[in-house]
Amino acid sequence: MNDTITVVVDEPKKLDEVSRVINDAYTNVGSLKLELFMSISVESRKFGFPIICTLKGKNEQLMWAAKLLLIMSESWQLEDIPEDFKLLQFSPLLDDVEKLLGRTLGNLNQLK
Q: Residue 2: pLDDT above 70?
């Protein structure tokens, strides 16, 4: 399996226009629905209902976590996210993606 991360770029100028707009759209969101979801991703394990990530590849994990957060925050519609969408390093979206993956992969490891 290739673990090279290809869905994250380190400079805004390396993003295509649609990826830039999507990353920026998430930056401007303070969604109560998203905050609740992120809280549930932490608290659910205490009650025996952990949210887990079963995806294997790092690129796939990053991309689907980003899509889930974009949907939960009501920042972008899933059908409008292009296949070649990229995440921007140090962006609020990528920061939240990494938090979510840390929690859900940690939950999966505790189940093993």
A: no
